[in-house]
Design goal:
By secondary structure, this protein is α/β, with parallel strands linked by helices. The protein is built from 14 helices and eleven strands. Helix 2 crosses helix 11 and helix 2 packs across helix 12.
Length: about 350
Amino acid sequence: MPARHPRRALLKAGLALAALLTAPVLSHPARAAEKLVFMLDWQAEAEHGGYFQAVAEGLYQKAGLDVTIVPGGPGMSAQQMLAAGKIDGTIGSNAFYVLNLVEAGAKVKAVASMFQKDPTILMAHAQNTTSLADLKGRPIFLGDPSINTLWRWLKSKYPYEDGQIRRYTGSLAPFLTTPAAAAQGYVTSEPLIAKKAGADVKVFLLADQGYDGYSGLVMFNDAYIQAHPAAVKAFVAATAEGWRHYLHGDAAAADALIRKSNPDMDAETLAYGRKALVDNGIVEGTPAGSNATGPDAIGRMTAARWEGFTTEMKRLGIYKAGTDWKAGVDLGNYTRGL
């Protein structure tokens, strides 16, 4: 399994698994509660705000859960650890992670999608870019996991060639000093880093350009789902409520927990990330208020969307013809989705 693409050069090396599980950053006990170890896909940031809001407000405790949240980080694969049964649950950063695990035969399932839109972007210098088509022939910095997945989708939509690929190592410096370049990132973070460096950038949210993969997927080990179905449902419901409150309520307590878990995180970045999640409909979808979007959409997944995404990626040769998304997705009764 590939690791999530690098996000920030300043992040420190990941902690050892033994240290994480024996000395967790956050543990929220509950009386006679169901124990659950949930690992983030990266170090704590705004993209995890709903989980920390649920901890801060005691939503997991009220749901009868004793949830321990541990951070991910560089050099760590939460999805591999989930497949090995080292943790109960984790986050699948995008739909590719789920299908990769299906092809690997891992006994894990995605039970909800806390992001209705993937926050992945391509970012270019504004002075010479008005559309993604303008990036033809220009250097594009990509995280390693995207080269054999998302890049193939981009090439199917735009006149790109493999010779344009440059590896994104976690630092935006090469992008910032190359006016013709573009870079992959998250709408919640990289644009702010570029702005702080004095760059004027044009941001393209790929979800608004036709990329329809789920993101922020809540995943559990099959054994845990079978043994504790009520706990899985309660966790999804409490996390969805945490996201509603984090986006539209007082996020101060959650942000304090995020900064405690990840001291490299600053208040400005958290505020920017939270606003970007709202403005771009990442968690609730857009337009807000329709039947399939808004606060009630948090966590939803549909068979039709999974089928459409998988079919398209098979057409691009990313997955085998026999790959079945149902082997890695449990629509069950864990959300109010269809």
